[in-house]
Structure formats: C-alpha cells, structure tokens
Amino acid sequence: MERHLSMRSSSPTHRNKTSSTSTSMTGSHETITTTTTTEKKHAYNAGFVPPSMKHKLRTRAMKRQTNRRQNLILGTFIVVITFIFVDLGLFNNSIVNRYQNKISQAKRDFNLDKNLRGGDEERNIWVSEESQPFNEHGLAVKAQHLVMVAGHSVTVSGHLKDAGIDEKDWFLLSYQKGQGLPQAIHAHIAAGIEEARKDPNSLLIFSGGETRAVSGPQTEAQAYFHVADAMNLWPSDEGASVRARTTTEEFATDSFENLLFSIARFREVTGNYPNKITVVSFSFKRRRFETLHAPALRLPADRFVYVGVDPPSSTGFDLKRSTEGELKNAAAPFEQDPYGCHSEVLQEKRKGRNPFHRTPPYGLSCPEMKYLLSFCGPDVVPVDRVPWGNGF
Hints:
The protein has two domains: 1-7 and 39-97, no CATH class; 138-385, Rossmann fold, CATH 3.40.50. Helix content is 44%, strand content 9%. The chain has twelve helices and seven strands. The model is unreliable at 1-46 and 106-113 (pLDDT under 50).
C-alpha cells in the first residue's frame, strides 16, 4: 500500500490535480518536500498513519495508562490509610474520653488541682470556659478596698511561663536591662494578689497604659494580668476569688496617674470610692507615693498603705542606685509640680508613654472627679473639691 501511494505521488498527472506543492531546487533536479492536502486525505482514508504521528499517539496512550495506574494506586492508599486512622481514632478516643471523665469526676469530688484560670497547661492555653469569671457572685462590684499594682513594662512573648525570670518576655529599655525587672514584676503581681487574697472585700487593679509604640497597642495592665494567668499565680484554696476580683486600668502613663486613674477605675466598677487603698511597687518609690501623690489627692494617711517589693540583689538590682535615681530624676519633678501639668520633664514623659494618643474616659464615667482630673495646681487641690473630702 505504501509503495502504491508513493508511486501516485510521484506521477506528474497527480501532482497537477493538487491545490499546492512546495519544492526545493538542488542543481537541475526538482524534489517534492511536502505531502499535499489531497494526498493526506487519501492517505488517511486508506488507513495510513505517518510514523511521527504513530510515535505521538503511542506516547500519549502510555502516559494516560501510567496516570490511571498511579491514580488508582494513590486512591487505594488514601482510602486504606483513612479507614485505619478512623478506626484507631475512634478506638483511642473512646478510651481516652472514658478515663478523662473519671479523672474529672474525681477532681470535682475531692477538689483536686483547682485551677481558677482554666486552660491547657501542655498547649500553653491559659483560659477556658471553666475559668473563674470576673465579678463571680457579684464580689467585684461589692468591693470597698482598692489594691493597685503599678505597671512597668509590656510583654512581647507568647510564652510567659518564665516571665518571672526571662527578660526576653518583656519590652525593656536599655536602662531597665540587667536590673532584675522580670523578677520584680513577678513579685509585684504576686504581692498584689496576696493583698487581695487577705481581704475578700478588695478589688485588685493592675494599672498601666499602652506605653510602648514598638510593642503595639498592648497595655502594661493587660500584660500583668496575662502573666498572672500564664504562671497560674492565682490562689487555689477553697473559696478563692481573687481572679474574680481583678481588673485593669489601661490609661496611666506615670505613678501619679496609676494612683489617680485606679481610683476612678474602682469607681467605674463598684459605683463607689474605696475606703482603703493599698499600692504595690518598688520600695524606693514609697516616699513618692506616701509624701507626694497621696497628699496631692487628699487621701487620708490612715487609709493609705504602701507595700514595697524589690527583687533580690543577685538579679542585678541595686537598691542604693535605684533610690538615688528616684530622688534625682523621678520624684524631684513632682515636688515642684504635684499634678504633672507644668514640668517639661513630666509632660514629655506622659507624651512619650502615650504613643497611641489614648484619652482617659474618667471625666465622663466619674463626674465627681472631673475637677480633680483636670486640676493642675501648683497648690494642692481644695479638700472640698475631691469626692472623699470628708474622708472615705
């Protein structure tokens, strides 16, 4: 058949019947280089397939067959593995769930491993639906005693179980590093919780705003609460309610605002002003709070308690150096400007520690404090212009 078609295509008469041909000249000989449209039609009608086309068809067929075989093997493998895992999963889950239920029931019966914040230790989850909620049994709104812990930094780590020793968990300025600040913060949180534990009529407030632009809009107060959760610092004795009596004040930028704004926050929660105030911070700040801030707010001395807590010297903390710096740099401006309105140093600190331009709401939520909140001295505010002018 191929020889017959070849003879036809070389015939001059047949070439004249075609629509077109392409030729090349080599010397005086003319060679036909392509198959005409008519020839292709007759060739395919006669069952002829060019060798190049045979090769392509054969290759495609082999690829399709290979793909079908691979898909079949892969599909079978997935189905088998799926059934295996389903069977094992159902089996294991039934056993695990059975024993977990027994363990949970035993803990409920014997009050074992009480965890007020709930969560999952192994997965670093601090809170769950079983965590003790704020104002449980209405305890927070009934509080009469304010316990305030002043903030000093914000967290920058998601792993806070070692926040009491690891500086990398905190955003620290250069002068704060190597001074035992993680240990100090941990001690302040623990001391605040202990003070609140001793008085079931107290409200614990962590105070501190969004002070660091680099760390984002996270407050010092939130950081302290999260550390208490992550390190499970809440008391677990029977009837413990400190977590239910703990909240945050998230606008303060310095120690004076820590105290002033925490009183306003107490008023927001309880509807009243505290009849006693306890402040927790470094021991070298005692003078600043007791002789400058408390008198500037007309707080009765016999209702004001200061708890000074410092980290051990082994952490790098130097009490003498810190006290000298306190007297020279921190307390001195408040001696001339008790409300921090006129001192350029204090104004710059407040501006620098409020990078997100937050505005405290306490003038609206605590209208009785509006005059005090905007008072700038330089004299001490008149006693009759503070809500507790006649004592708490």
